[in-house]
Design goal:
Layout: H1 2-13, H2 16-32, H3 41-60, H4 68-76, H5 82-99, H6 104-121, E1 125-127, E2 130-132, H7 140-161, H8 167-191, H9 193-199, H10 204-208, H11 210-233, H12 239-257, H13 265-272, H14 274-293
Antiparallel strand pairs: 1-2
Helix pairs in contact: 2-3, 2-7, 2-14, 3-5, 3-6, 6-7, 7-8, 8-11, 8-12, 8-13, 11-12, 12-14
Amino acid sequence: MTTLITFFRFFIFKNVFIGFCALALFETTRLLNGLPPQLTPAAILIFSSTILYYNFHDISARLNFAAWASLKSSLLMLRFSVAETLLFVTCILLSGWYLIKLQPGLLILFFIIGLISFSYSVPLIAWKGQRRRTREFFILKLSAISLCWAIMAVLIPLAEAGIYVEALILCLQFIFVSLFIFALCIPFEIRDLQLERLRGLRTIPVVLGIRKARLLGFLALGIGMAILFYFRLYGLISLPTMLAMQFVSVVAILLVVYSKDEPSDIYCKFYIDGMMILQFLLVFVSLNYHETLS
């Protein structure tokens, strides 16, 4: 039992699970646009680079970016277990190998994601005589996260497959994923409320309060549900698929609205992030159910 708990904690807290979540969101877009689930070069790169980035983000909090000497000193103080080292090396090799296999257009999209993500964790933005991270700006924090995930989960799979999607439909798919991710971030924001307040950061719960933050998450998912109705109205998704995605939205609403004022890391990293995997599984089942009826 102890071994299983240790593995589970490593799987969650060393960000392997969020890698699978990113892969699930990627594959959901493929399914919704008539493509089968497939471990394409972009899919594998998204999986491995997501694990790498989220671990880098965790590590960045222990780094001193004030000067090169202090950064070098803080880097030398880092210590990793054998399992962590194997995970990082494996993800670096996978990311490097599949990066060179990408089309030039996809490289541009990955570069945009990488730049935004890097500025989220590292103080690159000059502001009022200081270097700041994207996450330190009230408007930019969740906008940056939602934008990166939407590019990764919508634009990249479609671009890799060479699928043309009508501009309006593409925009609505992009907005749906952005709102979905925005809402899933709310419990994380609530979890970090006290810490961010001590740091002087203006996050949504800090500025608006927990209740209004939850309301924003509810509204984001509600708009997403309206988009799903639009897709169904114009025959873009089947009834079973719409119901499957609406079900996930309802579960997500319950998790966001009824989260504790201090939600646990497991609640956020497993149950909240797990909505991406649940959505993929239910969409996959709904499409197979629809094909069986047809």
